[in-house]
Every structure is written in structure tokens, then in C-alpha cells.
Amino acid sequence: MRAEFKEDCKYADEIHEDVRDLFYKWLKRYGLDIPEMDEDLASKLILTEMRKALDELELKHCGGVCDTEPPSCPK
């Protein structure tokens, strides 16, 4: 297995946790700024912006599509 795939396996859970934390950070901020916030709508808006940011990163670092699927990680 390539070293990059080993690192991906090693850090995958942390990356997912960081993304979740970032989402909830922004959801909390929306709640602070908008007391009567519709949480479902705020969630959709935040996720849309996160997807746009990921799309920009894919374009910059993968030429548009990062479709590299690492092999299954050992548990």
C-alpha cells in the first residue's frame, strides 16, 4: 500500500471529525446571529457553502474531480 493511502487511513476519522466540527461551528454562529433561526435552512446553506469550497479545492488540486478511492483501510 502506498504511503499516501496509509496516511489517509490513519487520518480519515480525524478529517471527518474536523469537517463535522466546522459545520457545527458555523451552525452555532448562525444561531448566535439569528435568534429565530430555522436550523434546517441554516444547515442547508452551510452545507452548500462547504460544498462550493470543496469544489474550488478540487478544481485547484485535482483539475476538477478528485476520484481517488484508497484501498480499504485495515481495522
Give structural notes.
73% of the residues lie in helices and 0% in strands. With 75 residues, it is mostly helical. It has one domain. The two termini are 15 Å apart.
Short characterization:
The chain contains two helices and no strands. With 75 residues, the protein is mainly alpha-helical.
- Fraction in helix: over 70%
Number of DSSP helical runs:
2
Radius of gyration: 16 Å
The helix-and-strand class reads mainly alpha
Taking the sheet with the most strands, its summary is: none
Q: How far is the first residue's CA from the last residue's CA? A: 15 Å
Domain module tally: 1
- Unreliable stretches (pLDDT < 50, length at least 5) are none
The percent range for strand residues is under 5%
Mean pLDDT: 89
How do the helices and strands follow one another from N- to C-terminus?
A: HH
How many beta-strand elements? 0
Overall 3D form: elongated
